[in-house]
């Protein structure tokens, strides 16, 4: 069995590599034609896909999966429409492939530039949500990449049903069906193969819990575009304009709780704490937030604030809990963020120009903000059109990753017979 | 012993991480000051460094190391001057750090841009040449990165002597000495530690033989900017201008043999082979090249060409040998390059506009050229100022890698109190 999974995955990999050669030079017109054909195929298979999802849901109920997972797994007619809507958006995105930039003459007479090209083959590993199957496939196609999809075992039937429609669309447009392949086994060995077949797969994109992502990163022999935690900070500096600080500190925490760009720790300068803390605490009380603070915060706000432990500074609560710390100034704030943070998104609220510049230079995070809510750190707000994920890595892609994250640049040289002297 | 190497490397890593926090926000002025102080310190320690190198050379002789390695190891007064000259060049390079680009307003009112930042800590693993110690250290410093250097055991004394001067210069400029650390043990376990300490090291740059690089890539738990082979092609298309094709095919192969951007296989369209091959073979004969060709090439050129085996198409000769193949046209040429090549640098010689465009789009190499010699693919010719290496990867850095390869971009957001709706 072990060996047959290995053989199966290598066949999948080989087919993906071959398909990627065709896709990489497919015109925008052909790629959009395929995406439109997939749209039609999906419309026509709505009932089949929803029926497959009902089977997955029934199995998941029988296996006593928790309600959060069941919610993510379910495809309702409304969610199905949302999926199709997302596909329309991808069709509308500008094709990044083939763009040539920085074309300029060198002293030797050659003309040198950079051309945007697909990465080749993407391996995607994800859990429960079947809509990721379409989302990832459409972004990969648009950017000229073949993709191998490995969804969660709980969504197997849903994912296979969506795959059938996708492959039907690819065929209609004359592209190889193996541009998009959905792994048809739930054997874990398939993941082990996928993340080590460096001859067939160019990049791995995992989406799911931290445990999954850490496991994949450890075992992969292929670059991984990954996202671990979002432990984001807002630092209310001594010269903050409270008319900005109050709404931002409220919005960054309470606009949505379960998202990676939500603030998890609020840092307040000691010079402004007496004025700021009671006012923001009042707003948080209305939202019934649980506050955990350092001793100095508790001195000001009293017992409505629980004592924060060392672990709290590392925590990504993803819920209605907030850690608060009073800091002596800029240096302590930055040291705290760089030490305890996850290098995701961190903001300073200040009117001081020089301090703002310093914060920008010294905070080592994928998004650094001045006088704005951390909640802005996402692909849609950044105008990327669609988001593959948010990367907390520094190599290749950082922060919200759009279509560009699935591309690379090669050098192009135009000459009239130049030779090296 | 094993444990003490582990402890030693973790101390080195920790110190590098701390130093990188200081360096990452050091001004251009301070970094250039440090580089100038290193220049002076090196000038003053020339005799000590050359003496250390003499010791390394003596040991290498005793160990019967081969002459190529001895040549790379040796530091003559002329080479020492060359090293200092390279350092001057790095001082003159534009500081990439802090550059903000693409700053534009989003519909929400936030202003979004990208800021160039250092990667953090670079781990460099290399063989024999002691000048790499200075080159890598100066490029890392200029781009705001701390660096951990692990040179070959045969160059240990030379590298340590250079390190002393570097650290003296850092101290003079008020920067932490641990910005540049040279590993003082030749134990292999140190490399094992270096390439897996992901908490302290952000990127690994290996320089050396293919074996070394493959080993490091396999074992690393940190992204590697790597360079494997340079199996480069020139494809003389049917509509090539022979006044361009002849000098390019000569230059790409014979300008220098031991370099990764030299042509190793010449592809010739069957429609032009009878005319082109005898003329280029005459030029190659003057250079006493050994030619290995397919059966069709031998039909035209006869016994002056040895038969090429399947392995020859994969070979990076790095010497006066050339493989030649006749192809039926564009498709066969591109398939050959994508299959047997190393995705380094490949050129087409043609006057046909549409075929040139097709070649550009479909050849999957880090540099793709039209009517120019593959020998142009290097950091100096591309105007990068200095070259960390040439990457055959697609992720992060591709082709010649300059200072920018040691940097990343973070998102920056400027607001006046914007919150997410």
From TrEMBL, chains A, B:
EC number of this enzyme: 1.2.1.41
Zinc listed as a keyword: no
UniProt-listed CDD domains: ALDH_F18-19_ProA-GPR
SUPFAM superfamilies: ALDH-like
Bilayer-crossing regions: none
Key words of the record: Amino-acid biosynthesis, Cytoplasm, NADP, Oxidoreductase, Proline biosynthesis
Molecular function per GO: glutamate-5-semialdehyde dehydrogenase activity
Catalytic class of the enzyme: oxidoreductase
Major location category of this protein: cytoplasm
UniProt pathway annotation: Amino-acid biosynthesis; L-proline biosynthesis; L-glutamate 5-semialdehyde from L-glutamate: step 2/2
Subcellular location: Cytoplasm
Catalytic reactions on record: L-glutamate 5-semialdehyde + phosphate + NADP(+) = L-glutamyl 5-phosphate + NADPH + H(+)
Pfam families xref list: Aldedh (PF00171)
Residue intervals of the Aldehyde dehydrogenase domain: 14-285, 313-378
Keyword Oxidoreductase: yes
InterPro entries assigned: Ald_DH/histidinol_DH (IPR016161), Ald_DH_C (IPR016163), Ald_DH_N (IPR016162), Aldehyde_DH_dom (IPR015590), G-glutamylP_reductase_CS (IPR020593), Glu-5-SA_DH (IPR012134), GPR_dom (IPR000965)
Leader peptide range in chain numbering: none
PANTHER family the UniProt entry points to: DELTA-1-PYRROLINE-5-CARBOXYLATE SYNTHASE, GLUTAMATE SEMIALDEHYDE DEHYDROGENASE
Entry-linked NCBIfam families: PRK00197.1 (NF001221), proA (TIGR00407)
Function: Catalyzes the NADPH-dependent reduction of L-glutamate 5-phosphate into L-glutamate 5-semialdehyde and phosphate. The product spontaneously undergoes cyclization to form 1-pyrroline-5-carboxylate.
Entry's family note: Belongs to the gamma-glutamyl phosphate reductase family.
Record's protein name: Gamma-glutamyl phosphate reductase
Organism this protein belongs to: Acinetobacter chengduensis
Gene: proA
């Amino acid at each position: 069995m072990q060996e047959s999974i290995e053989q199966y995955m290598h066949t999948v990999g080989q087919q993906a590599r071959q398909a990627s050669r065709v896709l990489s030079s497919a015109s925008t017109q052909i790629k959009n034609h395929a995406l439109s054909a997939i749209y039609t195929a999906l419309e026509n298979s709505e009932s089949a896909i929803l029926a497959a999802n009902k089977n997955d849901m029934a199995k998941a109920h029988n296996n006593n999966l928790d309600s959060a997972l069941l919610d993510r797994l379910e495809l309702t007619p409304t969610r199905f429409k949302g999926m199709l809507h997302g596909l329309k958006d991808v069709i509308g995105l500008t094709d990044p492939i083939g763009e040539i930039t920085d074309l300029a003459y060198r002293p030797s007479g050659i003309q040198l530039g950079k051309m945007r090209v697909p990465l080749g083959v993407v391996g995607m590993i994800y859990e429960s949500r079947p809509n990721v199957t379409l989302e990832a496939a459409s972004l990969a196609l648009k950017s000229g990449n073949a993709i191998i999809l490995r969804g969660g075992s709980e969504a197997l039937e849903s994912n296979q049903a969506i795959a059938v429609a996708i492959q039907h669309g690819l065929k209609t447009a004359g592209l190889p069906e193996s541009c998009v392949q959905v792994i048809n086994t739930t054997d874990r060995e398939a993941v082990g193969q996928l993340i080590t077949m460096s001859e067939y797969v160019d990049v791995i994109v995992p989406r799911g819990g931290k445990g999954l992502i850490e496991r994949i990163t450890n075992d992969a022999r292929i670059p991984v575009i990954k996202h671990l935690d979002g432990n984001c900070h807002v630092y209310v500096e001594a010269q903050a304009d409270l008319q900005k600080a109050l709404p931002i500190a409220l919005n960054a925490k309470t606009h949505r709780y379960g998202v990676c760009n939500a603030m998890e720790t609020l840092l307040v300068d000691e010079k402004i704490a007496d004025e700021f803390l009671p006012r923001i605490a009042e707003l948080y009380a209305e939202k019934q937030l649980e506050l955990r603070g350092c001793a100095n915060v508790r001195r000001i706000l009293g017992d409505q604030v629980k004592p924060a432990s060392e672990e709290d500074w590392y925590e990504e609560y993803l819920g209605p809990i907030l850690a608060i710390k009073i800091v002596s100034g800029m240096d302590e704030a930055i040291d705290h963020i760089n030490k305890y943070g996850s290098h995701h998104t961190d903001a300073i609220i200040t009117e001081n120009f020089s301090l703002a510049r310093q914060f920008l230079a010294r905070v080592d995070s994928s998004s650094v903000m001045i006088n704005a809510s951390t909640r802005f750190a996402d692909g849609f707000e950044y105008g990327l059109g669609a988001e593959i994920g948010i990367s907390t890595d520094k190599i290749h892609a950082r922060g919200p990753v759009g279509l560009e994250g699935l591309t690379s640049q090669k050098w192009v040289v135009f000459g009239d017979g130049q030779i090296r002297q």
